[in-house]
Design a protein that fits this description.
5 strands, about 300 residues, mainly alpha, about 40% helix
């Protein structure tokens, strides 16, 4: 999720035949697909273009970051700058509700390094009326940091799984009265959320999946030693372990007058390491036919 409004003409749609004042400051990279060109900051993208589809028919005219982000995540008009609260569930939340995890003991929906849209957490990734159990599991930590540690994934000191089971039984008993009088299903949602939480903290598979230090230095370098690169690598680990839907948040794309500097100094090189390596990694592991990688933001920019 490229939060802030990515310029399509400076990424995936450079329009090399357009007049100079419309083309932007970058050159053009040819790809494996005749007639398909990318920004010249994306040479590695160009090398895997035979495994990427550019969706050119996606279009809207809404320049409100909140309305556009809500629309992209949910498919519905609703939230906007005047009323930012999420109104409809995200595609990730719907997937979590309807499909669940691909393997027991794993969350269905995970957000790396945090669940966020346009500065709101979890923002338009949330489950809204589907209930809190459909919200993404928020990693809450940057996998590129040396002190990276996933929040709420380990048992407290002195607590073993037997005590966790006892506490879960006690919690269910204490909630029974409220559940019987709850008119809106909130307690059911909390029960499901708690059940998933207990499964997570008692699951060695989940802890191993989130442990990015198990990857080789060579592969981590290929993805890029930065937040988006290591988040993309963690996303691959999670889907391989059985998570159904994973989001990678990349912020800072709201560049109005500083597009060239932002692309050359950061966004371009980081994206050109993370995404092609993810495609190649999934392919080498036999996962590319089973995993869809979607890159999007709330809107593009007009050429001028």
């Amino acid at each position: 999720w490229l939060d802030g409004g990515t310029t399509h003409i400076d990424t995936y749609d450079p329009k090399p035949m357009a007049p100079a004042e419309y083309r932007g400051p970058f050159g053009v990279a040819s790809t494996k697909i005749p007639g398909v060109h990318l920004c010249d900051l994306f040479p590695r993208h160009a090398s895997v273009m035979d495994r990427i589809s550019i969706v050119r028919s996606m279009h809207h005219d809404n320049g409100d970051h909140f309305a556009a982000a809500h629309w992209m995540w949910t498919g519905y008009h609703g939230s906007n700058a005047a009323n930012r609260d999420p109104m409809y569930p995200s595609v990730g939340a719907i997937t979590a509700k309807m499909k669940g995890p691909n393997r027991p003991g794993m969350p269905a929906f995970v957000a790396i390094p945090q669940a966020m849209t346009v500065g709101i957490r979890p923002g338009y990734q949330s489950g809204t009326f589907l209930g809190v159990a459909s919200n993404p599991f928020d990693v809450g930590a940057d996998p590129n940091r040396k002190d990276y540690k996933v929040q709420n994934l380990n048992l407290p000191g002195g607590v073993d799984t037997t005590r966790v089971d006892d506490r879960q039984t006690l919690l269910t008993g204490l909630d029974r009265v409220q559940r019987e009088i709850d008119p809106n299903g909130l307690m059911d949602g909390i029960d499901e959320f708690n059940h998933e939480a207990f499964d997570l903290i008692t699951s060695a598979a989940a802890r191993n999946a989130f442990d990015i230090s198990q990857e080789s230095d060579e592969l981590r370098d290929r993805y890029g030693r930065n937040t988006i690169g290591q988040s993309a690598l963690l996303a691959r680990r999670l889907v391989e372990a059985g998570v159904t839907f994973v989001t990678v948040h990349s912020g800072g794309w709201d560049n109005h007058g500083g597009i060239e500097r932002a692309m050359r100094d950061g966004h371009g090189p980081r994206m050109d390491a993370a995404l092609p390596t993810l495609i190649e990694d999934l392919d080498q592991r036999g996962l590319l036919n089973d995993v869809m990688v979607l890159v999007m933001g709330e809107f593009g920019r007009t050429p001028k």
